[in-house]
Design brief:
Belongs to the complex I 51 kDa subunit family. Keywords: 4Fe-4S, Flavoprotein, FMN, Iron, Iron-sulfur, Metal-binding. InterPro entries: ComplexI_51kDa_subunit, Nuo51_FMN-bd, Nuo51_FMN-bd_sf, Nuop51_4Fe4S-bd, Nuop51_4Fe4S-bd_sf, Soluble_ligand-bd. This is NADH-ubiquinone oxidoreductase-F iron-sulfur binding region domain-containing protein. The chain is of the alpha/beta class. It folds into 3 domains: 210 residues, NADH-ubiquinone oxidoreductase 51kDa subunit (Rossmann fold), CATH 3.40.50; 83 residues, Ubiquitin-like (UB roll), CATH 3.10.20; 166 residues, Alpha-Beta Plaits. It is built from 17 helices and 14 strands. A 6-stranded mixed sheet has the order 1-7-6-10-8-9. A 4-stranded parallel sheet has the order 4-3-2-5, with helices on both faces. A two-stranded antiparallel ribbon has the order 11-14. The longest helix is centred in the C-terminal third of the chain and has 36 residues. The protein starts with 9 loop residues before the first strand and ends in a 25-residue tail after the last strand. The C terminus is likely disordered.
């Protein structure tokens, strides 16, 4: 069983270090050591900073890969048009079990991240800086870094800077969830998609990007675009940070120039010589088969051309001794449990998809496969955030990449291999305080008459299927929705709905609703 990754695993570098410069000297670069290693940094004007970002082809390193210059210009234009001060937000909420690159940067080089954020704040005329974190170690390191620079959240400060601590959950890193928490709300997506560049923290235009993106900006501003472009590929210059885990001898974060063969990076981490598959981009990413992984280079464009993804920079090989579908099931169940529970695709779809994969592995045959494909397709594009889309992408990629294993399970009852659990997940029993209520909704089908009042009261948790009867997912009711769930129970005229204690993590097995003719999601848009 693969143990959870530590906050700061081993760090290595291929070629000359940029982001990881000085890591061979000290465990953490305080301000004095940071300046010795990197030197001082002069302010850069707004348009010049955007032009620099264009010249070095800087894209967001949190997963989506959005061009940083476009985001910077959009925030500036919105702020000028509205006559308000923008806000800068550093997203250090790296809560995916397979990702540690941003956590390593904040723990070991917090001032490089702050350099980029302060450059952007100065260029935009921002007077508020928020750094979102979810770990004790990142909170302590960034709080110390702000203190070392004399930055605080006092009203009299020219720049009000603060660390925003949020619960340790997958959806916390979603941009809208971080903005919502910075405004004093729960660290959950708000249920509607609004661009932070238009309306973010406090309703102001907000520049939000992850820690590595700001660190890359600081490096480019120091060494200049010509020198920055001397490293890596012409169309994707510079270096990237990758987190290597899964079936490797040495889990690590590694800085590599773009263009390095992926097989070389895997070899450095002690991956199997012939991996069965390599998950690229993390748990919202895509699988590469053994042949594609051997041919791939570290590049967003090159990985996508082979069906992979750079995503959040996680690379996870698995060896031939484990069942890939069983590994995917463990991840799918965890992803379903990380839902914010605020919309149908997350609340109903993700547990149903994980349950569908479980049914397939349990001998459900072609019927289970068809049900899994149907619910995965229904989830796409319908969520309040990108979590359902990313989970659906992971499951679809799994079915495509391991077609032989899929056929063995569907047609022959199994592939003959056990699930070793090589993909890292949080330690069993970890719960984030205050998010799930510990209760779930249950329907007594001997009493239900299909009145549909429950779906009117709490549509986030209950949907009506094509037959007019409710579909309820087997997952805990989130605390913010518990009051309405209780109201739905009281309003049921047939007394068919109840709240009951949810099973523990070890007992839970999300599954497709077992009543014939009922589906986990209807076919309409939410």
């Amino acid at each position: 069983m693969n143990a959870p990754l530590p906050d700061v695993p081993e760090v290595r570098v291929v070629g000359l270090p940029q982001l990881t410069a000085g890591f061979d000297l000290v465990e953490r670069l305080d301000l004095a050591m940071h300046l010795k290693v990197h030197g001082p940094l002069e302010p850069v004007g707004g348009e010049r900073l955007a032009a620099l970002s264009d010249e070095v082809v800087l894209r967001g390193r949190g997963g989506a890969g959005f061009p940083f210059a476009r985001k910077l210009r959009a925030v500036a234009q919105a702020a000028i048009g509205r006559g308000v001060r923008p806000v800068v937000v550093v997203n250090g909420s790296e809560d995916e079990p397979a990702c540690r690159k941003d956590t390593v940067l904040i723990n070991r080089a917090p001032h490089l991240v702050l350099d980029g954020a302060l450059l952007a704040a100065e260029a935009l005329g921002a007077r508020t800086l928020v750094i979102g974190v979810t770990r004790d170690s990142t909170e302590a390191s960034m709080t110390a870094a702000l203190s070392e620079r004399g930055l605080s959240n006092r009203r009299t400060s020219a720049l009000r800077a603060r660390v925003q601590r949020n619960p340790h959950r997958m959806v916390t890193g979603e941009a809208s969830a971080l903005v919502r928490s910075a405004d004093g709300g729960p660290a959950l997506p708000p249920g509607r998609r609004v661009r932070a560049s238009d309306s973010g923290v406090g309703g102001a235009p907000t520049l939000l990007s992850n820690a590595e993106t700001f660190a890359q900006l600081a490096v480019a501003a120091r060494i200049g675009p010509a020198r920055y472009r001397n490293t890596g590929l012409h169309d994707e210059p510079g270096t990237v940070l990758l987190t290597l885990s899964g079936a490797v001898a040495r889990p690590m974060v590694i800085e590599v120039p773009t263009g390095v063969p992926l097989r070389y990076v895997l070899q450095l981490a002690g991956a199997p010589p012939l991996p069965q598959g390599v998950l690229t981009g993390g748990y919202h990413g895509s699988w590469l088969g053994a042949t594609a992984a051997h041919e791939a280079i570290v590049s967003r464009t090159a990985l996508e051309a082979l069906g992979g993804a750079l995503g959040a920079g996680a690379v996870l090989p698995i060896g031939p001794e484990t069942c890939p579908l069983g590994e995917a099931l463990r991840v799918a169940q965890w992803l379903a449990g990380e839902s914010s529970g605020q919309c149908g695709p997350c609340r109903l779809g993700l547990p149903a998809a994980a349950g569908g994969l479980a049914d397939l592995l349990g001998g459900g045959g072609p019927t289970a496969l068809e049900a899994l494909r149907e619910v995965t397709s229904a989830v796409r594009g319908r969520g309040a955030c990108k979590h359902p889309d990313g989970t659906a992408q992971f499951l679809s990629s799994t079915l495509s990449a391991f077609a032989d294993d899929l056929a063995a399970h569907v047609l022959s009852g199994g592939c003959g291999r056990e699930t070793r659990g090589v993909l890292p997940l949080p330690a069993p029993g970890r719960r984030d305080p205050g998010v799930p209520s510990g209760e779930r909704l249950a329907v007594d089908w001997t009493l239900c008459e299909g009145h549909g009042l429950c779906a009117d009261v709490v549509p986030e948790l209950i949907r009506l299927g094509p037959d007019g009867f409710p579909s309820v997912a087997d997952a805990p009711v989130p605390l913010p929705l518990r009051g309405r769930a209780q109201r739905a129970v009281r309003r049921c005229p047939a007394l068919a709905l109840r709240l009951e204690r949810a099973p523990s993590e070890g007992q839970r097995r999300p599954a497709l609703p077992g009543t014939p003719g009922r589906k986990a999601l209807d076919s309409g848009r939410s």
